[in-house]
Write a structure and sequence with these properties.
single chain; eight-stranded mixed sheet; Restriction Endonuclease; 3 domains; alpha/beta
């Protein structure tokens, strides 16, 4: 049998070396062992960005960015690339479905639970059946940690790639060594942690090991159940997003008839009685006047004329006069009194994130004509958040309606402000 150097360590932090070396059998540091041939190597444990591994050498990598030795032909293919040169802004990291059952608890504890915030480094490249994801990121299941097998010129090697945020370095060395003991027993004839195993353990060790195994199984069951709940919650969220985009959120994204319809829906949900006036005016007056007319069951006789406008950029000051001109005059002639309120409801910068949108018509002097007519400017963001607060129970529709009836110049939902 050839003499072997069981494990070679590369760029391992000094404070980890002794702990790792205790489970490595024969070992040494790469920079202290010049002139090594590939046949001298069994396992490289590397903390380097680019591990220097020839074909046929097993690799445990913490934080590796590029795996040069995997470029050769793999299982009859023309080869593939593995990099972690890209970043992902997906928020959720989870244990991959393909992860070995005996590793799931370890992956959760040392890879998933310790993963950094976004953006985080992920692996891309050409993945074959010889690759097994251990942890993945986002709905796209981008690889965050992996186990892969390569063959070149008859030499088989496994690579276990973990992010630099992974913890439990000794646990991973033990787990990987046990895996290699089962898959490559000639080079790894013994289990690295035989003293803690049932076969040669004391009664106390056997009892403690059994307890630990039971807890690992329990953790796996809990994590599996949580993963199922998370998947269900993701499906519910996806459905809610579609419903919101086609429903109330149209007040934040649309213009024209769809925006008018969305605003009317919000006002009705707040308890107003809302009439859409375009058809009425087409038949009765032959003119385009206010879009909506709102009344409040709590205040008989109270009427608001509502003009709704959507903009890809900021609101136009000249549009303010539309609601206080012909619509108010036509109402006064027909009802022999002015309307109680006129509302100019605007959805500005509708193609951008609502949280980044500037204040619509920020100078109150530009709203003086609206103020003189007993009117108010209403941003659809305020209307939407007020509607949401009522649905979530943090505000009452009565209070919101009262606030809107009393508003002058500019109405702001206090909960958003």
């Amino acid at each position: 049998m050839r003499p072997t150097l069981g494990s070679v360590f590369e760029s391992v932090p000094d404070d980890l070396y002794d702990d790792l070396a205790a489970f490595a059998g024969t070992h040494g540091r790469l920079d202290e062992l010049p002139g090594l041939h590939a046949s001298d190597w069994d396992l490289l444990v590397s903390f380097a960005d680019t591990p220097t591994v020839p074909q046929g050498v097993h690799l445990l990598s913490f934080g590796g960015e590029e795996f040069v030795h995997i470029f050769s032909s793999v299982w009859g293919g023309s080869g593939y690339h593995l990099y972690s040169r890209t970043e992902s802004i997906a928020r959720h990291v989870r244990v991959a479905d393909e992860a070995p059952p005996e590793w799931r608890s370890l992956i959760q504890r040392t890879v998933v639970d310790t993963s950094p915030g976004v953006p985080r480094r992920v692996f891309n490249g050409y993945w074959s059946a010889a690759n097994r994801p251990l942890a993945v990121v986002g709905a796209e299941a981008v690889i965050f940690a992996f186990l892969t097998e390569s063959r070149a010129e008859g030499a088989q090697a496994f690579t276990l790639g973990l992010p630099d945020s992974a913890t439990g370095h000794v646990d991973w060395l033990v787990a990987f060594s046990k895996f290699l003991h089962e898959t490559d027993p000639e080079r790894f004839p013994g289990a690295p942690d035989w003293q803690s195993q049932a076969e040669w353990g004391t009664p106390e060790i056997r009892r403690a090991a059994a307890t630990l195994d039971g807890l690992a199984d329990e953790r796996t069951e809990v994590m599996t159940a949580l993963a199922k709940r998370e998947a269900q919650a993701a499906r519910v969220l996806e459905s809610a997003v579609r419903a919101g985009a086609d429903g109330a959120q149209r007040a934040l994204t649309r213009d024209g008839d769809e925006l008018v319809d969305a605003v009317a829906g919000l006002l009705r949900d707040l308890g107003f009685v809302v009439d859409e006036m375009d058809e009425h005016h087409d038949q009765k007056t032959g003119a385009k006047l206010e879009d909506l007319r709102a009344t409040d069951p709590d205040v008989p006789g109270w009427v608001a004329l509502v003009e709704v406008k959507g903009y890809t950029r900021g609101a136009k000051v000249n549009d303010v006069a539309q609601i206080i001109g012909r619509p108010s005059m036509a109402f006064a002639i027909d009802q022999r009194r002015p309307p109680d309120a006129v509302w100019h409801i605007v959805n500005t910068w509708r193609e951008t994130d609502p949280s980044t949108r500037p204040i619509a018509i920020p100078n109150d002097n530009d709203l003086s004509a609206l103020t003189s007519a007993g009117g108010t400017l209403i941003d659809t963001r305020d209307l939407f958040t007020a509607w949401r607060a009522v649905h979530e129970g943090t505000a009452t529709s009565t209070d919101v309606r009262g606030s809107l009836r009393e508003a002058l110049t500019r109405w702001t939902n206090k909960q958003r402000a």
